[in-house]
Specification:
By secondary structure, this protein is α/β, with parallel strands linked by helices. The chain has 4 domains: about 130 residues, Rossmann fold; about 150 residues, 3-Layer(aba) Sandwich (Rossmann fold); about 80 residues, Helicase, Ruva Protein, domain 3 (Orthogonal Bundle), CATH 1.10.8; about 50 residues, Arc Repressor Mutant, subunit A, CATH 1.10.10.60. About 50% of the residues lie in helices and about 10% in strands. It contains 20 helices and 14 strands. Strands 2-1-3-4-5 form a 5-stranded parallel sheet, with helices on both faces. A 5-stranded parallel sheet has the order 7-10-13-6-14. Strands 8-9 form a two-stranded antiparallel sheet. The radius of gyration is 28 Å and the shape is globular.
């Protein structure tokens, strides 16, 4: 990769010195002589690294303003601040705003080149980590053979070829984003952008900016999620958290297929497929007055419901095998010997769902235990504070022994049935009962048999 460095300084001598120094070191340069030129260069293309003078033509600290502008577009870009009017407060302020280094004029050329080299190393490391994370996540598949997961896979195949809007409902960590990505990958938009806007993480004052973008007084443009996702797919995650006034504006976009940027006068037309996800029941949110019913009906052309992991226990062994293989390959270690039928794992409540299970397996991979016994200890240590059976015992200490035993047996046998997908023979063999005795026990406890 050829590194491109943006030089911003209003002193032509400094610009020329920096330009020659950086080109001689084997890097490409772009140059801006004032604040507006810098904005124009940044809007054309985000540089790999920027070297910016604190004081330009606009004011005493307009270099810091440029620093903030770059970071708002890409927080990973290293920015080196240079100044001939240094003081401690200015240095601290620039570092707080995200500057990579702060250099005083006249600067030592060797020292500056070392800063640039370190900035490139830092940038490469972040890019490698992003590539690793994206590869790992984008390579994940929807794993499971429970009725719920098989139904979701079938739904994905049917709706991916359409342009229908979709709401994916399920608890946090259950794989809603993965489902949305799968739909995008199988759609005709697969080679276009997939953009995520998280309604729960945005500053309440920045919803419009993040969605619609902004036209600034100096002529520069900040693009919002709708334009970034043009021709592709926009996933609005946790859509229930978006304020009502912004919901009405989203509704207007869906109706008109166009919008205006903040401070803009021209209509922007976009072609975007919108998928929404929520951990809350949007119908309930409508009743409470937190979500617009007309927007819900516009978005809810098709609904996918993901059940919690503790309601599809039969998926857990498959997920353990799958994540163990994937994470072992990613960490370049031997296959993790995790017992997929460990009752401690199967009986855990998994409040964090698939994400919690994946994190557990990654924790084991990082610690690299040498034996199955050590793996088992890590599992127990990680899950003991929220183990479902522990909770069960704590909650039922106040009831008579017979009632507590019945509750335990009912919960235990229900979990085992789910694990073996309703197969009575396999369940009976695992729990150590005769098949006929298990039938009687299930009937006595009021547990319905299923296939």
């Amino acid at each position: 990769m050829t590194v491109e460095i943006l030089i911003v300084d209003d002193n032509s001598d400094i610009r020329n010195i920096l330009n020659d120094l950086i080109i001689d070191a084997g890097y490409k340069t772009r140059i801006a002589a004032n604040f507006n030129q810098a904005l124009s260069e940044i809007d054309k293309k985000i540089p790999d690294i920027a070297i910016i003078d604190v004081k330009l033509d606009k004011g005493d600290n307009d270099g810091i303003e440029l620093l903030s502008y770059i970071k708002s577009k890409n927080k990973d870009v290293p920015v080196i601040i240079i100044t001939g009017h240094a003081n401690i407060e200015m240095a601290v302020n620039s570092l707080k705003q995200g500057a990579f280094e702060f250099v005083e004029k006249p600067f030592d050329q060797t020292r500056l080149l070392n800063f640039i080299k370190r900035a490139i190393e830092n940038l490469n490391l972040k890019n490698q980590n992003k590539e690793y994370e994206n590869k790992l996540f984008s390579s994940y598949k929807i794993v499971g053979d429970s009725k719920n997961i098989l139904n979701i896979k079938e739904q994905i195949d049917k709706i991916s070829v359409t342009e229908s809007r979709i709401i994916i409902n399920g608890p946090s960590g259950s794989g809603k984003e993965l489902i949305a990505r799968s739909i995008h990958k199988k759609s005709k938009r697969q080679n276009k952008p997939f953009v995520i806007l998280n309604g729960a993480l945005l500053d309440s004052n920045k919803y419009e900016l993040e969605l619609f973008g902004e036209e600034k007084e100096n002529g520069s443009i900040s693009y919002g999620a709708l334009e970034k996702a043009n021709k592709g797919t926009l996933l609005i995650d946790q859509v229930s958290e978006i304020p009502l006034d912004i919901q009405s504006k989203i509704l207007r976009v869906l109706i008109d297929q166009k919008f205006k940027r903040l401070n803009g006068n021209n209509d922007i037309k976009v072609d975007v497929r919108i998928i929404c996800s929520s951990s809350k029941d949007l119908k309930e949110e409508i009743k409470f007055g937190n979500f617009r019913e007309d927007l819900f009906h516009r978005l809810n052309v098709f609904e996918i419901i993901v059940k919690p992991l503790n309601q599809r226990v039969s998926d857990i062994p498959l997920l353990i095998k799958y994540f163990s293989k994937k994470i072992s390959e990613a960490y370049n270690i031997k296959d993790l010997q995790i017992d997929e039928n460990d009752s401690y794992i199967l009986n855990h409540n998994w409040q964090g769902n698939v994400r919690e299970l994946r994190n557990l397996i990654e924790r084991i991979a990082i610690l690299q235990p040498e034996s199955k016994e050590k793996i088992s200890n890590i599992v127990k240590e990680s899950l003991k504070t929220v183990n479902y059976l522990d909770k069960f015992r704590e909650n039922d200490l106040s009831v008579p022994l017979k009632e507590a035993r019945e509750k335990f047996e009912k919960e235990y046998l229900t979990i085992q049935l789910k694990k073996f997908k309703g197969n009575i023979s396999k369940t009976a063999n695992f729990v150590g009962m005769e098949r006929s005795a298990l039938h009687r026990k299930l009937k006595g406890l009021g547990i319905k048999e299923f296939n």
